[in-house]
Amino acid sequence: MLNSQNGRPSLKTILKSSAVGGLAALMLTTGVAGPIAHSFAAPVEVTAPQVPSFANVVDAVSPAVVSVRVQSNVQPASDENNGYSFNFGGRGLDQLPDDHPLKRFFKEFGGPGSGEGDKRADRGPRGHRDGKGPLRPTAQGSGFFISEDGYIVTNNHVVDDGSAYTVVMNDGTELDAKLVGRDTRTDLAVLKVDVNRKFTYVQFADDSKIRVGDWVVAVGNPFGLGGTVTSGIISARGRDIGSGPYDDYLQIDAAVNRGNSGGPAFNLNGEVIGINTAIFSPSGGNVGIAFAIPASVAKDVIQDLIKDGKVERGWLGVQIQPVSKDIAESLGLAEASGALVVAPQAGSPGDKAGIKQGDIITALNGDTIKDARDLSRRIGAMAPNSKVELSLWRGGKSQPVTVTLGDLASDDASKATTSQNDDKGGQPSSEKALSSLGLTVAPSDDGAGLAITDVDPDSDAAARGLKSGEKITSVNNQQVASAADVEKILSQAKKDGRSKALFQIQTEDGSRFIALDIDQG
Residues in domain PDZ (predicted)? Predict the structure, then answer.
């Protein structure tokens, strides 16, 4: 070891001094010498509201939800030669040479030319004496009990063309059912199970109280898997998906797939708020956009089906279209609401009451009509022979009219034709340009209206879809037979301070109204 020489401390002395100094420093900060404690960061913890469980709802409603299996009589592709002919425009098998292998095969197993066909001539395929094919599964969907005595609700498209129906309960019990009635316009159907037992059933909710964003639980039979539960929220209300005049669907984002049709969508009280009916899907599977028939629509239809197997609806008998802002402005209407009458059907209740093309129906029994769909739903919800008061916007003012509704179930079977006004006065002898509209017109061959012979591609008329070959029958609800008639009506519209005029356009597919800008220069 090194010792102190020439007054300098040794290495040993230096180490001792360092140790003592370190101990003193530790005692100064802690008071007592001891082990050093390690420090750890606290884990992330977030306090959030508890998400509700759907288990109680599912436990309560599952016994009321069923799978629906549909069987139909399968018809043969051809019944020629007792179902054994394969004559695709050429010779049948019975005309083949005797040594042909197919001829020998069918001769051995009872095909054409074997004599066996005559023995079964009084039978249908596979020996069915009624001439119908065998029952084969053709569809499957979902449904639910709405009464303890066995009434079941499902979709019409599930049971359509069915000959036999089987419902499978959540415990696997299979029961035969019969079709009570169906309604194609709302895509609803009712089945009935006749057995000596009481069923667990569910009831419809008051869907006027539901809001976008509310929870929804869907129970059904996707892809034939049996009872399956999914959840989501109500995404929108009042959806029109183009399936019929009474479209008023709830849109939900719960997973709904093929086989869920006819199944219920529940609120958290276990009440049915809608019946799952359709999905939007580019791929055929769930993408989070499903549509359900609202309980308010289903209740009345189902009651009618249970009562007498059909639905009776009021019938007005007028072709209608929505009122756009341009159309409202062209007719001097303050708001773009109501239903524009394109044409009343001849002999219909609306025609008899004096409703005319170009009228706008703005109210029904004092209640404002929002749009054409709203009018269709309200009229359809009324009983035939009901008297209703309509408010019409005609000639720049409102006027009432009383109509006795017909019966849609019977009246719509007969195709009424639209009356035409054959005013032929004042026809010019050649084409004439309506430069302010970008149109060239000529007298119509039948003398009613003006044929459009040319459309300026840069005009407002072209932008709104007018084409050569179509016909202008009226402007601002006044019949026209010449370009001069049109110019006169447009001149009056300008004096009235209007920037648009309403044109009725006749095509091969029917009639429609279009509002066009008027040249203000």
Answer: 305-371, 416-508
CB 286 within 8 A of CB 279: yes
Query: Known binder of ligand: residue 157?
Result: yes
Of the candidates 273, 269, 411, 429, the residue with the CA atom closest to the CA atom of residue 352: 411
Question: For residue 54, what are its two tokens?
Answer: 């759907």
Positions marked active-site: 157, 187, 261
CA dist., res. 411 & res. 380, Å (int) = 13
**Token pair of 290 as six digits:** 């499903």
Tens of pLDDT, residue by residue over 350-385, are 999 999 989 999 999 999 999 888 898 889 888 889
**Token pair 């005009």: residue:** 459
Reading the block at residue 411, the tokens are 């009246």
Distance of CA 433 to the CA centre of its chain: 43
For residue 131, give both structure tokens: 């001439």
Q: Are 204 and 151 in contact (CB under 8 A)?
A: no
What's the CATH fold of domain 432-517?
A: Pdz3 Domain (2.30.42)
Does 259 show up as a binding residue in the annotation?
Answer: yes
First CA to last CA distance, the chain: 116
Q: What is the pTM of this model?
A: 0.63
Query: Which CATH fold topology does 207-295 show?
Result: Thrombin, subunit H (2.40.10)
Please report, for residues 305, 318, 445, the alpha-carbon distance to residue 183 in angstroms, rounded to integers and kept in the order given.
8, 22, 43
Decide whether 314-412 matches 432-517 in CATH topology: yes
